Amino acid sequence: MQLKDKIIIVTGGGQGLGRAMAEHLAAKGARLALVDLNEERLAAAVTACKSAGGDARAYLCNVADEEQVSGMVAQVAEDFGGLDGLVNNAGILRDGLLLKVKDGVIGKMSLAQWQAVIDVNLTGVFLCTREVAAKLVELQRAGVIVNISSISRAGNMGQTNYSAAKAGVASATVVWAKELARYGIRVAGVAPGFIETEMVASMK
Question: Which residues of 123-157 are buried (b: 16+ CB within 10 A; e: fewer)?
């Protein structure tokens, strides 16, 4: 795949898998828009990508916020003079059992735990895909969208929220691949297993 000078947005690009993927793409000469909420880590990731041989810029954006996502995608296209792809990688964990039982029910997964993960890991993917696809159509450019699902999409104990979100990403990827192919936009998914990142290390 020819990546030199391709303009690619990487969400969750300030750390973990996002940063690793960004550095790999940078080494191939890609021009990267790194999206995250951690300004300090974003700055470090931008420096690392530039050292690897690519161009990179930082964008603070909450992928679960429709207005922020729309603005970010428009700004990236303006700053770089176009757009070619997206890696939907941003994700969070709020693990917990559906029920904790000890001589009766003593705890439940809260709605806040459920909603936070669905908002970032599923709604965020929807919003970023929609806005990037719309921008590619507007610019009349073919492109590639890669969604990061997870092996946990099959169902992982203690991860009702995360598993549901990642299963949703996997099925949505198939739908979008069918819908967007006519515009020259390819959509694919990757479902990694457990990789030694800070997020995985935080799991019990």
Answer: bbbbbbbebbbebbeeeebebbbbbbbbebbeebe
Q: Does residue 171 form part of some domain?
A: yes
Q: Is residue 2 part of a domain?
A: no
Q: Which CATH number covers residue 171? A: 3.40.50.720
So which residues are the catalytic ones? 162
Query: In terms of residue numbers, what domain contains 43?
Result: 7-201
Q: Is the pTM of this model over 0.70?
A: yes
61: nearest Cα among 148, 113, 131: 131
State the amino acid at position 123 in one-letter form.
Answer: T
Structure tokens at 114: 């459920």
The CA-atom distances, in angstroms, between 45 and each of 12, 115, 158 are: 11, 28, 31
Distance separating alpha carbons of residues 172 and 161, to the nearest angstrom = 16
Contacts of residue 138, defined as CB under 8 A and 6 or more positions apart, other chains included, come to none
pLDDT, one tens digit per residue, over 146-165 is 999 988 777 789 999 999 99
